[in-house]
Amino acid sequence: MQTAHRRKRKTGWRGRRSVERTRGGSAIESLPLLVCLVLCSQLIPAVRTQAAVLALYEFNGANGNFNTTAFDSTDADTDTTAWRLTQSGGLTGGGAGKFILSNAVFNASNSGQPGLNAANVNQSSPTRYIQFQVAPEGGVAGVKYESLSFFTDTWSSGGAHASVRVLDGAGPEQVLAASISIPGGSVPVELRTLDFPDFTSSNTATWRIYFWGTSASNYGTRFDDITLIGTAVPEPCSLALLASALAAILSVRPAFPTRRAVRPVL
Ligand SMILES: [Ca+2]
Ligand SMILES: [Ca+2]
Hints:
Elements lengths: L1 H42 L8 E6 L22 E3 L3 E2 L4 E2 L6 E2 L1 H4 L8 E5 L9 E8 L3 E15 L5 E9 L4 E10 L7 E5 L4 E3 L3 E8 L8 E14 L4 H14 L14
Antiparallel strand pairs: 1-14, 2-7, 3-7, 4-6, 5-6, 6-14, 7-13, 8-11, 8-12, 8-14, 9-10, 9-13
The structure holds calcium ion (CA) (2 copies).
One calcium ion binds next to strand 14.
């Protein structure tokens, strides 16, 4: 009887635990999934989902050499990296022989600040360009590129032309604008905005602005406040996290006894 009593008590305890586990099991078993969801919810807000300035070249430096901080992007975007602006080679400093001129030297400027002033662009077709690269940072799946704008003009009275092109990763080079009019003569720089069809890339994107068509090689063509607008695309909730959560659930299940009918103790 004593043995039967103990067995009955034990059986009864197991029965209650089985019921408790059955009632609370769904919450316990869902814990890894909840942890996964919380982790994902922490990751996603870290990436902005609004359009931002991804690159901004203001050329606010006294030094006319390309490879200086005056050619760095001054954007504050943390979801992407924009590298120093460079040239294809062959460009020279326009006007006073410098790549960067003050607002007063070049002309009364709508940009209001010093800007890039490049010469030796009197070719009849686009062969010389300035370029910069942009890439997503960690935690960002890609970047949706939306528009590009810049101030421009040229000392050449007949004006000049610019073409905007982009390489998605290794390329090929895609033409976003075949020919943009650059105002010429003693005129203030004018803002040009290229609202191209949005596209998304997870690669390093190389942006090129070709310019050509001045009437003399020593006539400077000016650019200022080159501004690239786009939106960071966050990483989707990691499938690996979901998989590990599922694996954790499955590994917990065998620990629970299979519910059996409680045999009455006589
Ligand atoms: Ca500037
Ligand atoms: Ca657009």
